[in-house]
Design brief:
single chain; 247 residues; alpha/beta; 2 domains; five-stranded antiparallel beta sheet; elongated; LytTR_DNA-bd_dom
Length: 247
C-alpha cells in the first residue's frame, strides 16, 4: 500500500480528491490536513507517508511552510489553481504539479510517475528523492493567466514564444499575447528543453512554430505567431541553437 496524506483546506476539494484516489486501490489515505499549523504538528509527530497531495494556498499560509519547518522524505504532488508557485513547488520534493480542476488522466499520470520512482522494497532516502527528481525534471505543461477578473488555462504547446517587454514576460499564442508572473530565467528551468530554446535575453521560442530561419547577416527567426519585435539569435547562442534544432 502507498501511504498517502492529503493537505487541502477546502472540504469539497478534499472530498473530491479522496473520491478520485479511491479508484487507485494501492493508495491508502492516512491523514487529511487542513492548515499549516496542523501540518507542522502532524509531520512532527507521525511517520511520514510515501506520497503527499498538497494544495499550496491554505487558510493560514502556504503549504511550503510545513515542509520548510519539517523536511519530508515523501514525494509531493501539488494541487492548486495558482500558477505563480510552480517554480518553488519544483524545488520541494515535488514530482508533479496539477492545476485545478484536476483531470483524471493528469492524476493517473502523476501517480504512475510516483510509482516509477519507488524501488521494489519501497526504500528511498531524502537525498535519493532529490536526485530522482533532478534526473526526471518536471516540465511545465499548463500556465494559468489572468484576463481581467477571469482566469484562462493555456497549454504550453499552444505558446509560440515567451518574451519580455517593459519588465513583464508575455506568452504568445495564435490569438494574442498574455502577461505572466514568470521570469524568462524561471521559465527556462521548467519548460521542455526539446521544444523551447532561449535564443537571447528577450525571447524563448517554440520549435514547432518556427516558420523560417535567416542566417545572413545574422541569425533571425520568423515564427508563425510572434510579437512585432524581430527575433534574433545571440552570437554566443548560435552553436547551441543549431544543435538544438536537430536534437
Amino acid at each position: 500500500m502507498i501511504k498517502t496524506v492529503i493537505i487541502e483546506d477546502e472540504k469539497p476539494a478534499s472530498r473530491k480528491l479522496e473520491r478520485m484516489l479511491s479508484d487507485f486501490p494501492e493508495i491508502q489515505i492516512v491523514a487529511k490536513i487542513e492548515s499549516v499549523e496542523e501540518g507542522v504538528e502532524w509531520f512532527s509527530q507521525n511517520e511520514h507517508p510515501q506520497l503527499i497531495f498538497s494544495d499550496i494556498v491554505l487558510g493560514d499560509g502556504l503549504s511550503f511552510d510545513i515542509f520548510e519547518k519539517v523536511p519530508t522524505k515523501g514525494f509531493i504532488i501539488y494541487t492548486t489553481a495558482f500558477d505563480q508557485y510552480t517554480l518553488k513547488a519544483f524545488k520541494l520534493n515535488s514530482i508533479d504539479y496539477l492545476l485545478k480542476p484536476i483531470l483524471e488522466e493528469d492524476l493517473s499520470g502523476a501517480i504512475e510517475k510516483f510509482k516509477s520512482f519507488i524501488p521494489s522494497d519501497n526504500s528511498v532516502s531524502s537525498q535519493e528523492i532529490k536526485e530522482l527528481i533532478k534526473k526526471d525534471k518536471t516540465t511545465l505543461s499548463r500556465i494559468l493567466v489572468k484576463i481581467g477578473y477571469n482566469l484562462k488555462i493555456i497549454q504550453t504547446h499552444e505558446v509560440s514564444c515567451f518574451f519580455s517587454e517593459n519588465k513583464i514576460v508575455y506568452l504568445q499564442t495564435q490569438e494574442r499575447s498574455y502577461p505572466s508572473d514568470f521570469t524568462l530565467d524561471e521559465l527556462e528551468d521548467v519548460l521542455d528543453e526539446k521544444k523551447f530554446f532561449r535564443v537571447n535575453r528577450q525571447f524563448i521560442i517554440h520549435a514547432d512554430y518556427i516558420k523560417n530561419i535567416h542566417t545572413s547577416p545574422y541569425y533571425k527567426v520568423d515564427l508563425e505567431f510572434q510579437p512585432q519585435e524581430e527575433i534574433t539569435v545571440s552570437r554566443d547562442r548560435v552553436k547551441d541553437f543549431k544543435e538544438w534544432l536537430i536534437s
